[in-house]
Amino acid sequence: MSKRTRGDTGFRIGYLVHDVSRLRQAFFTEHMRPHGVTHAQWWALGQLIRHDPQGGLTQAELARALDLGKVATGAMIARLEAAGLVERRADAADRRLNRVFVTARGSRVVERMVSVAQGLNAALLHGMAREDLEATLRVLTELRRRLRSTLDEA
């Protein structure tokens, strides 16, 4: 087994991507707290909007998007529903299924989430060279593609 060194980019990129993501989430969570939305809740709202803004997601689909179990997702949905941020409606094709939809109040929270994210992005990216940002986007997009491909093959 080879010894890892501080200059090993294969090791550092995973650490840096994780650390940037963690710090960004901490910032975002802090700025959403005054709106009464926890990290898990804003993540669920974001996934609902991102994956199917009009048709809603089933609990199982949302669980997959959040990488959570169905029971934990059900509890999350119940809390979001109690806060008036989402609602469950019977699936038109299969009455045994419920679809989860973002409510008008939830949409206002999502608008605030977008505003916070835009402000954060503007502050983080200010003064960075366009070429550096484009290269970063290309590299991260390719890493994501490779990881998905590797997971799909497994």
UniProtKB/TrEMBL annotation:
Keywords: DNA-binding, Transcription, Transcription regulation. PROSITE patterns: HTH_MARR_2 (PS50995). InterPro entries: HTH_MarR-typ, WH-like_DNA-bd_sf, WH_DNA-bd_sf. Coiled coil: none annotated. Residues 1-145 form the HTH marR-type domain. Pfam families: MarR_2. This is MarR family transcriptional regulator. It comes from Roseomonas alba.
